[in-house]
Amino acid sequence: MSGRGWGASHRGDRGQSTVELALALPLVTLVLLLVVQVGLVVRDQVLVTGAAREAARTAAVVGPDDRSAIERAAARAGSLAPDRLHVEVGSGVDGAVAVHVRYRSRTDLPLIGALVPDLDLHADATMRRE
Does residue 7 sit within a domain? Predict the structure, then answer.
């Protein structure tokens, strides 16, 4: 064996893992933020679907002409921002009431908000009049 031991052959690799981490960390952070943003959009879509159901249920009970009650019901259905929530009421088949809810989901997470534009989410619900 020569004077160079096992550790001598790996001296040039000491900072390699640090450099690899420094190169990979921004990409990993971006992917994690993107996953969180997708989760927030999915949550908003579930809330929009619930808002459409609640608005349709209210329209079936009070009638399609009481727009303020229908819009309040949609707004109360979840934690959606009322200023980005739009409710349209129409008539369905056989006297049913059809509701279309549209919501603008903001993508405002750091870095992701600049890469992904805000999304328009939609949901429809139809219920028979009571």
Answer: no
